[in-house]
Structure formats: structure tokens, C-alpha cells
Amino acid sequence: MQIIKQQVEVLIQRVLEKASLSSEQAVELLLHTGAVESGYHAIKQHPKGPATSFWQVEPFTACDIWKNYLVFRTSLRAKIVKASNIPERFMDELPTIEDCEELLHTNLAFAILMARLVYRRIPKALPNVGDLNAQAKYWLKYYNAGGKGEESKFLYANT
């Protein structure tokens, strides 16, 4: 398990840097989010939920990010398209729910960026690096809102 987390951390950092969305706080929070959401063991929410990828982003959420956030940020949208190697048509058109589901399921870079943008849309600073308790609270309030998460689950997955 340690090897996959190390590799995913490098991938998160690389993808976020390509999209100009990287910070130590963002990399660590996304790494910890994947650990609690999937444990890096599953790509699809069990048994048949809509969430997908290591970060368990729902296709509806990804589509909402495009429709209500990226559509107004042309420069960022271009960086997302390039960093995730998705078709350039998404510079001008919104992905469908089916597009988002397929991209989240098959494209790690896209999934990383959508998880990052879930947090980016929050008008509150990311928790400090190394502050697992603050990260757990932030994840529960903003990422897992309405889910079955608990701070203790986040802490357990990341210790």
C-alpha cells in the first residue's frame, strides 16, 4: 500500500503543477482524501454508487464544476484540458454526465483535477500540511458533506 500512495502523491503533484493548482497543502489533502475515500483499493463506489476514481467524485459533481465554475474561467479550463489530456472540444463545450463518468473512471489526471476543484471552490483556506485533525474536519465539512464520513475515519485512513 505504501508504494501506491507514494506513486499517487507524485502523480497528484505532477498533475496539479501542470494545471497551476499545486501547493503542499493541496497535494497532501488530495493524497489523504484518496486514502479515506477509496483506500486506493477501489475505482467505483461499492456496491453501485455513482462516485468513481480513487477520490470518489460523482459525475454530477464534475459536470457541476464545468457548468458553474470552469465555464467562467477560460484560462483555468484550458489548463485542465491540457493537464488531463482530454479532448480539446471541452474548451468550448460542456462534458455530459456520461463524459464525466467515463473520464473520472478512466483518467487519473482528470479525477485528481476534479477532486482538487471540489476543494478549490471552497472560499476557505486549505488546512496546513501535517494538521490531520484540521484536514479531517475540512474533508468532512466540504468534501464528504452529506456522506457517511466521520473525522475518525479520515484520521484512521491516514495514520
Straight-line distance between termini: 13 Å
Shape: globular
N-to-C series of helices and strands: HHHHHHHH
Number of individual domains: 1
> Could you report the average pLDDT, rounded to the nearest whole number?
95
Topology, please?
Layout: H1 2-18, H2 24-37, H3 59-68, H4 74-84, H5 97-106, H6 108-120, H7 132-143, H8 151-157
Helix pairs in contact: 1-2, 1-6, 2-8, 3-5, 4-6, 5-6, 7-8
Task: Briefly characterize the structure.
By secondary structure, the protein is mainly α.
What does this structure look like?
The longest helix has 17 residues, at 2-18. This protein has one domain (2-157). The chain has 159 residues and is mostly helical. Helix 2 crosses helix 8 (151-157) and helix 4 runs antiparallel to helix 6. 35% of the residues are buried. 59% of the residues lie in helices and 0% in strands.
Keywords:
159 residues, mainly alpha, 59% helix
